[in-house]
Amino acid sequence: MTFATDGLAYGVPEHGQRVLDVLERAGFEAWVVGGWVRDALRGAPSHDVDVTTSAHWEQTARTLRAAGIEVHETGIAHGTVTAVVSGEPVEVTTFRTEGVYSDHRHPDDVRFVTDVREDLRRRDFTVNAMAYHPERGLLDLFGGADDLNRRVIRAVGVPSERFEEDALRVLRAVRFAARMGFVVERATHEALIAAAPDLAHIASERIGQELDGIVRSGHAAWALEAEPEVMCAAIPELAAMRGFDQQSPWHIYDVYEHTVHVCRACEEFTVGMATDELRWAALLHDVAKPVTFEADENGRGHFFGHPKVGAQMCSTIMRRLALPKTYVQRASTLIRLHDHMVYPTPRSIRRSLLKLERACPGDARSLIFQLIDLKRSDAVSKVPSAAHYAVELDALSAAVRRELSAQPPLRVSELAVSGADLIEEANLTPGPELGQVLDELLRCVVNGELPNRRDDLIEKARSLA
Ligand code: ATP
Ligand code: MG
Fold first, then answer.
1. What is the per-residue burial (b if ≥16 Cβ within 10 Å, else e) of 58-89?
2. Which residue CA neighbors atom 27 of ligand 1 most closely?
3. Ligand 1: which of 123, 147, 216 to mutate, judged by most atoms within 8 Å of the beta carbon?
4. Which ligand lies nearest to the CA atom of residue 175 in the structure?
């Protein structure tokens, strides 16, 4: 076995150490494994502790419980139980290998084994296939520590075989590389391309989890550029964007390349702090361009309605990937409004805020800045002469800040009158009509036709009633 004790940025936390100690004192072998070892070696924030052990899960549960540790049987079919020590969970799994994968996603059977090395061999990438024990040191059979230093993702074993077994690993490779800012090693990359079509066998919610990890890493631009086959297999709608000539004097890039630039610009403008919905919106903002394309008599391309159709496609895609509803709603709203003109006037700003608030209740004040970031990123990703719009958007940003500091009402509940006031003072009766009057009052205030003052609002309500 190859051992080295040095190189970890921090030690095993107490809760993990306790699980190791209890198991080893009972005569079993136990190691910390996977993500914790990877992140401790690269000095990243500490990951949850996962333990792998020679004990069968029933022995693990019995031994830990006898030592007073709470144990939950969270995945016994795969040999996994979860111990809870001082409120911290530790997943403990029996050393195992996996049988044949006849469906590209689940092993036909799981076999428990006695040698930790066999367990490490079934793991996906070298950087994820290291085990560590505070006394025995690092067990790194496949050069995972070297690969961390070289910043590469490399499959354990023969890459094509590993991706054929489980096609989800194709996306996992891209996710780990994106998250850590690594690249995919050449042979692994070639196998990724060959196996990408097998993603069709994988449940879409599992694809959604991995893709969301890629998007949230802030490195979607890298993933699109470096691993286009994988990204297009994961989101088939992206494939139509590749090489799609916009036939427009406003664009020097095809739709796919333009998208790469927009994703990258979003990170640059936000210094890597883009919200996740903005990241999804950047990725999919022009997804409807291929389906809405029309060439006019001069051969110039137009994409009428692409923001609206794109917003619908974004919803379809993100829902198919089982991503949360409000998340989907925010991303698709940004896409729907990405070409909507906002002028640096109070009226235009407030009307835009109202649109955002209606689509995403409670989010307008944050979404307006995300919308500006999306527009700014879009502007610098076309022809160079279109980039000046980014400067106008800076002025818009400042105007939005001023406008928001005046705390404009964006919903009926923020008006200076309530429904009850109108019933009392304007002779209205409870029911749908009351709601319509309140909506109209809000519209008038947002348009600057009325101040948000009780007396003015009541008077207007009387005239409406
Ligand atoms: P994170 O949870 O931060 O994304 P992780 O390394 O903990 O990273 P998990 O998906 O939680 O990743 O899996 C834990 C470990 O199990 C991995 O480090 C890897 O060794 C192994 N593993 C997980 N999924 C697979 C898979 N599909 N094929 C092979 N090994 C896998
Ligand atoms: Mg994990």
1. ebbbebbeebebebeeeeeeebbbbbebeeeb
2. 169
3. 123
4. 1
Convert the pLDDT of each residue in 244-261 to its tens digit. 999 999 999 999 999 999
pTM metric for this prediction: 0.94
Q: What does the pLDDT read at residue 104? A: 79
Structure-token pair, residue 89: 């969970």
Q: What is the CA radius of gyration of the chain?
A: 28
Q: Which residues of the chain have pLDDT under 50?
A: 1-5
Neighbours of ion ligand 2 (CB under 5 A): 35
Q: Enumerate residues 6+ apart whose C-beta is below 8 A from 106.
A: none
So what's the pLDDT on residue 3? 41
> Do residues 119 and 52 touch, judged by C-beta distance below 8 A?
yes
